[in-house]
Amino acid sequence: MSRKIRKIAATALAFAMLAGSAAGFSAVQETPVITVSAAEQAVSATKAPNGIAGPTIDAGTYKIATGDTFKVKIKVTDNADGFNAINAWLDVNTNYFEIVDKANGDPDMAEYEDSEAYTAVTLNEYSKKNVGKEIKTIITLYSDTNNLKGDVVISTITLKAKADAPAGYYSLPFDAVGDDGAMANRIDEKRDPIVINPTFRGALVQVGEGTDMIYPASSSSSDILKGDFNLDGKVSQTDATFMLRYLLESSVSDNKTDVLYDLIKGTIREELKNESKEKIFELANASGDVDGSESGKSFKQTDATYILRALLNDSKIDNAFWTTFFA
Ligand SMILES: [Ca+2]
Ligand SMILES: [Ca+2]
């Protein structure tokens, strides 16, 4: 098959897989863990049920000057067993970075147009729900009929740091949920797809010198389990109770951040324990607004009511549940 025809076939297969997630290709995923501390790449992982460990997808670290144009290479490593499909969602904060260009694979390599990634990748730009308009998500969709093994760059994103971007470290994380579209798989001997869970390492970009500030992308839907107001990792009656108590207490206080923090600080799950009060406030509000009517900035009593109503169902309450609930 010629490269060009292979590309068309691979693209058709990719979209068939995306559309037909029920057909042996699970897109239902647990809330991933995303961690970032000062001057480290943000790490996240998909946690598809029944998925096995997958490769690492690394967007790399960069040191640039304000106004520089640079290439972010999205590279698959730890890939001895191979993959035939990967869908990687990289969040770029366009307040600080202009997206100049996107290319399949690695245009700097020899024999570029003969590379698998050149033909098997489809690139897209996407604006997710529930995040600020400044966040653009660049989706690298690799899909082929065979497994690809070893280190490989699947896409090259050219960014320009804006002239007014303050000096410091910037985190460009991968979204390991990607509006339920982030997924990866491998073909087994019988050519059946096996779900794999890659580990994603976002890009870390140091602009200029002399500061360890982090300018992360605004919190994405991937950080948030809707309804989990107290950030303990599950949706329960406690969330509704705390939400109602917060609404009452904050209505007579001029420090909403402290009211919220004091209310839930004892229940916040381990990986969020070191987050600032402001970040906790942001995450809890985004989680509390289960119907999205306040764009995740705050919530109302109706949101607590929705949680209580949802708890009457016998099913597990995750983000997919809410999508069905409000459908
Ligand atoms: Ca909870
Ligand atoms: Ca709401």
Largest sheet: 11 strands, mixed
Along the chain, the helix and strand elements come as: HEEEEEEEHEEEEEEEEHHHHH
Distinct small-molecule ligands in the complex: calcium ion
Spans where pLDDT lies below 50 across 5 or more residues: 1-37
Helical fraction equals 10-25%
Q: Report the mean per-residue pLDDT as an integer.
A: 84
- Work out the helix count: 7
Global shape: globular
In short:
The protein has 327 residues and is an alpha+beta fold. Helix content is 23%, strand content 31%.
Supply database-style keywords.
disordered N terminus; alpha+beta; Immunoglobulin-like; four-stranded mixed β-sheet; eleven-stranded mixed β-sheet; binds calcium ion; 23% helix; 327 residues
Explain what the structure shows:
This protein has 327 residues and is an alpha+beta fold. The protein has two domains: 3-216, Immunoglobulin-like (Sandwich), CATH 2.60.40; 224-325, no CATH class. Helices cover 23% and strands 31% of the residues. The chain has helices at residues 3-19, 116-120, 237-250, 256-264, 277-288, 301-312, 319-325, and strands at residues 34-35, 43-45, 52-58, 61-64, 69-77, 83-93, 97-104, 121-126, 135-148, 152-161, 168-172, 184-187, 193-201, 203-207, 214-216. The strands form two sheets. Strands 1, 2, 3, 5, 6, 7, 8, 9, 10, 12 and 13 form an eleven-stranded mixed sheet that branches. A four-stranded mixed sheet has the order 4-14-11-15, with no helix packed on it. A hairpin with a 5-residue loop joins β12 and β13 (193-201). α3 packs antiparallel against α6 (301-312) and α4 crosses α5 (277-288). Residues 1-37 have low confidence and may be disordered. Residues 289, 291, 293-294, 299-300, 303 line the site of one calcium ion.
